[in-house]
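Researcher: Re-running this chain for the archive, since the previous output was lost when a drive failed. Same request as before.
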Amino acid sequence: MEFKNILNSSTKSTQGEDEGWVKVNEGTWIPERPGDTIAGELVEKKFNIGKWNHNLYVIRLSDGRCRDVWGCYRLDKKMDEVIEGTVIRIRYKGDIRKSDGEFMYDMMYLKRKKNNKNDIYQLLLGW
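Model: Regenerated structure tokens:
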């Protein structure tokens, strides 16, 4: 039997094993058209990630799932002032052409105003 078949032939059932657990990360948010939006609490900022040394932002959504948002020049500049724990919204505005002819993403960043300490709970329960 090949090694991969041995690994895939496990007879142990995992049904119910993950009950009470939440997946830590559901993957990367990739906006497809202008107006696509992601909103939630900024959980973590990671710097110099991957081959191109990009920034990565981890956002916790209202349902508890986390999504990664890859940084780009304009978003990174706007996220410089944002601290972890802040409730934010990022909206994809589309591509723009730079003076050298290359395209780059244009993002709008919004930060939730804090009127009182219950705001974050109201946001996380239903924007």
